[in-house]
Amino acid sequence: MWGILPTIQNSNAWNWTEGKCEFVSSNGMPVVAGYPWTSKSVPAREAFIKKWGEPPSDIPMAAYDTVRFILPDALKRAETTETQTLIKTLETTDVETSMARHFVFTSSHDMMMTFADPNDPAAIDEGHIMYMTFQWQNGTQVPVYPEEIMTEAGAIYKYPSWSGPWDTK
User: Which of 37, 72, 76, 132 has the fewest other C-beta atoms within 10 Å?
Assistant: First the structure.
């Protein structure tokens, strides 16, 4: 089973389900699962846990990146807080955050996302915000997609021992 499962994405899901989420996969942000997508992912996650006593979710990390990396970068480059100048400066943002190696905005002011595409392995190298697929294995969320990151992490996708559509017999 996999999908966008907010409760299972939470790092406390293993304890909440008493380990019954083994083999469940969910799409999520690398920083939430503790994967070092950027040099800031793990330190930001650890700081959040130290401050709040629990792992972060996507929304607090997006807010953190905004006030810790994106806005300070734009203010420094703009050298002013004047609205129109700051907007123009934000449009040229390219900064590392806890969620992206290269946080940039699209021409319509959306966040640039990377979608893992097996037909375009270079997409991962762009390093924008990316949802990965993580699978619970023995109490840990391990990256299982995209394949390049699964291999880099030394992980494998695991199937339950009971019979199901994954059987090749």
Answer: 76
